[in-house]
Every structure is written in structure tokens, then in C-alpha cells.
């Protein structure tokens, strides 16, 4: 059986369809043996696919978009997350109806160590929602551990966090929920699988077999919810209370983190590219067919 190695930019609950597909044997049913690992630093993922250590990367589609025809050409072929999972919490409770304008003239801490997508998603959503992003004092030059220390030390008014850490801040009384981006952020191809041209020229169509297994994992997850993921949650996130992990997966299912199809759609790609153009890391949107490969 052919191996299919995935170099992952992180271990995340929004990657649950892959973990389910692995747990349930859906990849092996499709004819491949999948191995997934998280290198450090995450940028080693790119070296891994360039040197054939891995067949694919799972991470933000912003990398293939920014690198295209400049550094290296990577092509995306499946999505695993259709919404940004991040949560924005505030130091003080925000009164009244929700408004993105509440961040204006405030300091907002966003991790810079995890790539560009955290800042780009928050800024893009805020602008769509009517905020003046030039008036928002984004600070995105530090690692996740550093911004957490800074916020707990009294610096800044808002911080953007992964849901498990945001829930801890809220439970501890260190912060208040401001915006759950899986609910308020809309649909974007947040996390995808991508590889080099060599992957798509493979005679055994490894990408197509992976796609088939991942689709089965996604369908199963949407049908069974977090209650079917107890073993996976306990194994991968031992610091998270099991009931909290199940609740997060169920919330993701309800709010559209995973859609019925893992196909990357042109509409969601266009919206995300607009955020990248606004963030000045992409000159103009790239044609859909230049970015996405069909493998089924």
C-alpha cells in the first residue's frame, strides 16, 4: 500500500476530519496509508514537500497564493476547514450590540509566529463589518506564547486566540468573549491540503485517494459529531476537558467549520484572496484554475 505523508502546520481541532478518517480506516479503504506529523518550525513543511519527504502540507492556502510564480508553485486540492477557528476576547466586557468598530483605537494582539492568516482574517472581517482597520492598533509581531504573557501582564485590549485557550481565559475570568470567528467570520478556505506538481503527476493518483478518504471522514464527522471523537480528543488534547472538546467539535459542526463537500469553491477562494490583497501580501487575485487542482 502506498504511503501518503502529510506535513502539518499544527495539531488543531479543526483538522478533525483527517483524524477521523485515519481512526476509522477510510484512507486505507481508499488504498493509501496516511502518516501525519507536525515539524518545528512549521515552515519546514515546505521543505518537506520540496524534497519529497511529504506528499502534502495541511495549512493555510495563503502560502500557495503568495508563493505562486515567485518562490515555488504549490497547488491546493482539498479543504479541511471552511471557517477561521480563532476567537477574539477582550479585557473588558463590550456593552451593546456586536460591532467590529469596538476594536477601533484599541490594541489588538495577534500571533505573528503562526503565519499571516490570523491577522489577515481578523482585519478582513473587521473591514467587511464596517470598521476602520487603520484605526485598529494591530500588534502581530510576537509569538503566541508571548502575546498571551503580554495580555495577562496587562498589555492590550483584545487578543486573538485558539478556541481552547480562549475558553480558558474566559473561564478564569481573564477575558470576555468578543467574537467567535467560526461564527462571525464567514466562509473561507481556512485550511487546505497542497502539494507540488509531482503529487498530481503520480500514476497512482495519491491525491485522489487521499481526497476520497478525507471526504468520508468529513461526512462521518458531520453525521456523528463530537461524541464520536472522544478517543481522538483525549489522545491529542489531554489538557482539554473531554466535555469541552466534544462541545467545540459540535459547535464547529453547527457553525459550518466543515461543509458537506471538501471541494475548494471559487466563491470562498475569491473572498479570501480579497483579504490578502487588502493586506498587501498579494498584488491581485489569482485565477481559480491556477490555484486549485481537481483530483476526483
TrEMBL record:
Pfam families: NMT1 (PF09084). InterPro entries: NMT1/THI5, SsuA/THI5. Pathway: Cofactor biosynthesis; thiamine diphosphate biosynthesis. GO terms for biological process: thiamine biosynthetic process. It catalyses: N(6)-(pyridoxal phosphate)-L-lysyl-[4-amino-5-hydroxymethyl-2-methylpyrimidine phosphate synthase] + L-histidyl-[4-amino-5-hydroxymethyl-2-methylpyrimidine phosphate synthase] + 2 Fe(3+) + 4 H2O = L-lysyl-[4-amino-5-hydroxymethyl-2-methylpyrimidine phosphate synthase] + (2S)-2-amino-5-hydroxy-4-oxopentanoyl-[4-amino-5-hydroxymethyl-2-methylpyrimidine phosphate synthase] + 4-amino-2-methyl-5-(phosphooxymethyl)pyrimidine + 3-oxopropanoate + 2 Fe(2+) + 2 H(+). Residues 14-224 form the SsuA/THI5-like domain. Keywords: Iron, Metal-binding, Pyridoxal phosphate, Thiamine biosynthesis, Transferase. One of its GO terms (molecular function) is transferase activity. Belongs to the NMT1/THI5 family. Homodimer. Responsible for the formation of the pyrimidine heterocycle in the thiamine biosynthesis pathway. Catalyzes the formation of hydroxymethylpyrimidine phosphate (HMP-P) from histidine and pyridoxal phosphate (PLP). The protein uses PLP and the active site histidine to form HMP-P, generating an inactive enzyme. The enzyme can only undergo a single turnover, which suggests it is a suicide enzyme. This is Thiamine pyrimidine synthase. It comes from Entomomonas moraniae.
Amino acid at each position: 500500500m502506498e504511503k501518503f505523508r502529510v506535513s502539518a502546520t499544527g495539531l488543531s481541532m479543526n483538522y478533525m476530519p483527517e483524524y477521523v478518517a485515519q481512526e476509522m480506516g477510510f484512507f486505507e479503504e481508499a488504498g493509501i496509508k496516511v502518516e501525519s506529523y507536525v515539524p518545528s518550525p512549521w515552515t519546514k513543511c515546505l521543505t518537506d514537500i520540496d524534497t519529497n519527504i511529504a506528499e502534502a502540507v495541511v495549512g493555510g492556502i495563503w502560502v500557495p497564493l503568495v508563493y505562486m510564480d515567485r518562490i515555488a508553485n504549490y497547488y491546493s486540492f482539498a479543504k479541511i476547514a471552511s471557517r477561521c477557528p480563532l476567537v477574539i476576547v477582550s479585557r473588558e466586557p463590550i456593552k451593546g450590540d456586536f460591532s467590529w468598530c469596538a476594536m477601533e483605537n484599541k490594541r489588538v494582539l495577534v500571533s505573528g509566529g503562526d503565519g499571516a492568516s490570523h491577522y489577515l482574517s481578523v482585519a478582513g472581517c473587521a473591514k467587511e463589518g464596517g470598521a476602520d482597520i487603520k484605526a485598529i492598533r494591530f500588534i502581530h509581531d510576537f509569538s503566541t506564547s508571548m502575546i498571551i504573557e503580554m495580555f495577562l501582564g496587562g498589555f492590550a485590549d483584545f487578543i486573538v486566540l485558539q478556541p481552547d485557550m480562549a475558553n480558558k481565559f474566559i473561564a478564569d475570568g481573564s477575558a470576555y468573549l468578543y467574537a467567535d470567528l467560526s461564527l462571525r467570520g464567514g466562509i473561507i478556505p481556512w485550511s487546505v491540503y497542497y502539494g507540488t506538481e509531482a503529487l498530481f503527476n503520480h500514476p497512482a493518483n495519491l491525491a485522489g485517494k487521499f481526497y476520497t478518504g478525507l471526504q468520508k471522514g468529513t461526512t462521518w464527522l458531520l453525521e456523528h459529531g463530537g461524541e464520536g471523537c472522544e478517543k481522538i480528543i483525549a489522545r491529542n488534547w489531554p489538557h482539554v476537558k473531554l466535555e469541552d472538546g466534544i462541545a467545540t467539535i459540535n459547535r464547529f459542526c453547527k457553525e459550518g467549520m466543515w461543509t458537506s463537500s471538501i471541494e475548494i469553491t471559487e466563491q470562498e477562494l475569491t473572498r479570501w484572496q480579497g483579504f490578502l490583497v487588502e493586506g498587501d501580501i498579494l498584488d491581485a487575485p489569482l485565477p481559480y484554475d491556477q490555484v486549485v487542482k481537481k483530483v476526483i
